[in-house]
């Protein structure tokens, strides 16, 4: 009988250690937030700039996606500046120059971000805007919540059945 009690204490001790590790890991995940290098897929967009508008005016990606924007112009020089990411590319149309500029970045911040023309292109230049929508990484948030709940339930189990 003594061996059985010792074995039960050993199992309970392991459960306590395991529960504490799960709880601490999930708590750290909430404190630090999602990892900066969230891996996603590559999303490529061709945006055409023309007389005070972008086509398409809205692009949507997932947090962690690598975004490639190919900006083209059908009339005069234009550019693109994405607020919140502080990235910019100017497309200056001149003889012998390419009619495309490429912007690459990782969409690591969720939210809606305005992009606007970064080259003065005429009287309605201030109104030449679009929106980059970056959807949050729900998989990370769900896994973090599940880890916290698992830790809490393990501790509750130990508190109730440890006697």
UniProtKB/TrEMBL annotation:
Keywords: Copper, Membrane, Metal-binding, Transmembrane, Transmembrane helix
PROSITE patterns, per the entry: COX2_CUA
GO cellular component, one term: membrane
Annotated ranges, domain Cytochrome oxidase subunit II copper A binding: 40-146
Transmembrane segments: 138-160
Annotated GO MF terms: copper ion binding; cytochrome-c oxidase activity
UniProt-annotated location(s): Cell envelope
SUPFAM superfamilies membership: Cupredoxins
Chief place of localization: other
Protein name in the entry: Cytochrome oxidase subunit II copper A binding domain-containing protein
Organism: Caldiarchaeum subterraneum
